[in-house]
Amino acid sequence: MNYDLIYDPDEDSYLIGEQLKKFHDLNVLDLGTGSGFLAEISIKNNCKVLAADINKKAVEYCNKKGIKAIYSNLFSNISEKFDLIVFNPPYLPLDENEQKDSRVITTAGKKGHEIIEKFLKQAKGHLNKKGKILILFSSLSGDIPYLFEKYRYKHKKLSEKKLFFESIYVYLIE
Ligand SMILES: C[S@@+](CC[C@H](N)C(=O)[O-])C[C@H]1O[C@@H](n2cnc3c(N)ncnc32)[C@H](O)[C@@H]1O
Asked: How far apart are the CA of 18 and the centre of ligand 1, in A?
């Protein structure tokens, strides 16, 4: 499928971006990079950054801006390991009324956690020894801390924000 929409940074990008600003001089993967907003924060912080997205338009857009970006469905085209993986994923349950091409940005699956669960299964193989993950999700995503336990990640909530219909959370997991 061809996706035309590139996600404009929003409340979620800003909340996770505030935490990302605290990490310097690391080898970083920005998964689901969209406009490259998070990748650019890490580049400013002297990190070596690989950006990846399932949306080829976003990949093209980032490369044009000078961000090293590749097409990847989660880790499908990624073999390296990283010190930090930052992921502001699609984190909402399916809304049948939503247009198909914006679902790739918003929808994690029927229940709201499917992409996050797949990510958690795969991410372990892409972390360096002391590697960490910064991840965002919503009160509508389901019980994500339960998934952290299930896949044996230590986890710590770093920030949260109440929005109109939901709260969003940023966690550091390792
Ligand atoms: C909520 S947006 C976040 C964009 C950007 N990182 C930000 O914070 O502003 C989610 C991004 O994940 C991408 N995405 C969705 N499913 C993906 C997958 N399976 N693999 C890689 N990227 C994916 C979407 O194309 C979109 O760019």
From this structure: 18
